[in-house]
Amino acid sequence: MSVLPTVRMTALELPSRGVLVVLAGEGAAVAPSLPAHLADLIGRAARIGKFKGKNLSTLDLIAPADVPFERVVVVGTKSDAPYGEEDWLKLGGVVAAKIKGAEAPVIWTDRAEGGPVAAADVAAIAQGLLLRTYEFKRYKSAQKADEEDGDAVSAEVTIAVAEPDVARPALAVREAIAAGVALARDLVNEPANALGPVEFVERISELQQLGVDVEILTETEMKSLGMNALLGVSQGSPRPPRLAIMRWNGATDANEAPVAFVGKGVCFDTGGVSIKPAASMEDMKGDMGGAAAVTGLMRTFAGRNAKVNAVGIVGLVENSVDGAAQRPGDIVKAMSGTTIEVLNTDAEGRLVLADALWYCQERFKPRFVVDLATLTGAIIVALGHHHAGLFSNDDELAERLFSAGKETGEKVWRMPLGREYDKHIEGKFADIKNIGNGRAGGSITAAQFLKRFVKDVPWAHLDIAGTAMGAPSNEYNQSWASGFGVRLLNHLVEANYEEK
């Protein structure tokens, strides 16, 4: 497990050693609460270095001799638009990058413009710092890890705020979100030999310590339920499948219908008999990014004691190749009773989700259901790596997801569904087939397939193939696995479905 630094909130007090981080606005103006001689030093250095306080620009200074700390790092906040949540996250990430190797860093959150940073925004800075400091070093040798840790962020970072008692509860929430993202990143970054379906559910079971109810269905239970679509994917692997059900009951009414999240958990995807090309197949350890996000989300709900009832369901399989593997042309009957022609064994994620979605709706009767999956390469062709594909049967849910994406920076873009696409998955020998007619609209026909397993309930499908792994790094994420979806869906629930 990755270890994030400890963040503590204190009153506005200058550090006795280490480094001081200061925020600067228009013209490099700094807070009047800073000593005059320090503000003068920053002003003179800014003029010489032509530092004007531009957003996220930095100025690194040796501290004057008459103060006990060694460095002053100035970070610009001048922006043409008001700061939103992601702006504060980016600021925290920039600070984390600048204080690597520093002893006892202190972040001064008073400003010249706007006065003290609000408690919620201070907490967002802390979250950005935590997300940026995430590293996956589990398999580094002790010597190599020690060498790299010499340039790590301090184990404790102090944030000096005007009202620390007000900021601490907001910080606790942000720490829970960061822990959920870190868990999702850990799961995706793990190699497939260390994280198959059985090992995945062991990690999920650890959430019970936080109050999450966990239930695991084995192959036996899934067979009795008729989950033949999911089971067909796993039959070529010696590693048995699992279905994990996570429940968080935080609402006042324990019987209130839950919000529900379903994740694709293909722990490694060879493509099966329709085998993938060798190039970059190693990345298919991340084909469980949807399941990782759902797991991280449930950890976040528990960590911040969310006032909502929530269910997270993940279908966990390995899509491998042996003599027992599913063949192109095989026909399976899903839990819903729908028969499916499996024309391409590499279109396996939708088969896993078909049974998981149906089970979720049948058992829990949710208020809405959102599924997440690294489902198609076609969505990367359409949207690249900066937006996830959003498909939905409900305009309100879709709009709320879009808004949550804008606020958090985990952006989504709505894609179409329609009867004209539905015709592309009509089967010749069964009710439907698991691929469309050729390459055109591949992400759409995949979503249209999933829609066949959605009842009369608000539903959204997030195709996160381009955002869950290998996405471009930014100020608060330097990891191959981004943990995409945890912050997005936490914000969706917090803003729209949680008790106030």
Can you tell me about this structure?
Its main location: cytoplasm. By secondary structure, the protein is of the alpha/beta class. The protein has two domains: about 5-160, Leucine Aminopeptidase, subunit E, domain 1; about 180-495, Aminopeptidase, CATH 3.40.630.10. The protein has helices at about 35-50, 85-100, 120-135, 140-150, 165-190, 195-205, 220-225, 230-235, 290-305, 350-365, 380-385, 395-410, 420, 440-450, 485-495, and strands spanning about 5-10, 20-25, 60, 70-75, 105-110, 155-160, 215, 240-250, 260-270, 310-320, 330-335, 340, 370-375, 390, 410-415, 430-435, 460-465. Strands 7-8-10-9-13-17-14-15 form an eight-stranded mixed beta sheet, sandwiched between helices. The protein has a six-stranded mixed beta sheet with strand order 1-6-5-2-4-3, sandwiched between helices. Helix 12 links the parallel strand 14 (about 390) and strand 15 (about 410-415). Helix 3 runs parallel beside helix 5 (about 165-190) and helix 9 (about 290-305) packs across helix 15. The relative contact order is 0.12. The mean pLDDT is about 95.
DSSP, total strands: 17
CATH architectural arrangement of the largest domain: 3-Layer(aba) Sandwich
Which structural category do the helix and sheet elements fall into?
Answer: alpha/beta
Overall spatial form: elongated
Q: What is the CATH superfamily of the largest domain?
A: Zn peptidases
What's the alpha carbon Rg, rounded to whole Å? Answer: 24 Å
- What is the beta-strand fraction? 15-25%
How many helices in DSSP terms? 15
Helix content: 25-40%
pLDDT averaged residue by residue: 95
What's the number of domains?
Answer: 2
Which CATH class of the largest domain?
Alpha Beta
How far is the N terminus from the C terminus?
33 Å
Instruction: Give the spatial strand order of the biggest sheet.
Output: 7-8-10-9-13-17-14-15
